[in-house]
Hints:
Blueprint: H1 7-18, H2 47-69, H3 72-78, H4 84-100, H5 102-113, H6 115-138, H7 157-186, H8 194-229, H9 231-245
Helix pairs in contact: 2-7, 2-8, 2-9, 3-4, 4-7, 5-6, 5-7, 6-7, 6-9, 8-9
Amino acid sequence: MGSSLGGEEEERILLARATPPENFDEYTGDGSVDFRGHPILKHNTGNWRACSLILGTEVCERLAYYGISKSLVTYLSTRLHEGNVSAARNFTTWQGTCYLTPLIGATLADSYWGKYRTIAVFSTIYFLGMSALTLSALVPYLQPPQCIGSFCPKPALHQYLIYFVGLYMIALGAGGIKPCVSSFGADQFDDTDSVERTKKGAFFNWFYFSINIGSLISGTVLIWVQEKYGYDFRYLEEALLQEHAR
């Protein structure tokens, strides 16, 4: 009679059974290893100690993403002087890219780097993209020109480039984080421990709560900051939050 379990699940069970009983409380029982390939000490790492940082990172990342997406059409039409059709097209192209790049992040995480390195590398790319948007809004040489009456001059090529390069670096960074972060959080709990399995379920509740908190703050507080102080202060605030998460 053939086994209905997948090869990966069978391997995990065999590793768990191979663990000496006297080491069960010291090491994880599901065969998990750290990013160096060493067995994991259950009481020294993982669990909520690591997940609190993961949840904080997710809040900052979603806050930055939604903070940009909720006002991107407005920025493109009022600051880069694009028409409504062009601004909407650029927005949907960027948003579609954000949902395609997770294929890159997932491939790198599963086949080459692992979740930890993938998140670290793409978080850095994300932060560099946010820095480019901040410079675009702060540095006079990179700022798009203001309208003069009813005449709105087109931005220079370098002003277009700095903004759109930063925008698509964010799309790439989000693609490396999105497919890894929830499963990386779940990895912090030992499947062979009934208490930690319960905590894993609670982690997913907090994870989706973090996503919604980031979206809520971006749609209220950051929009208010934008209206009161402008895009330059808002982008700077988002970049600082992303650096804190990284």
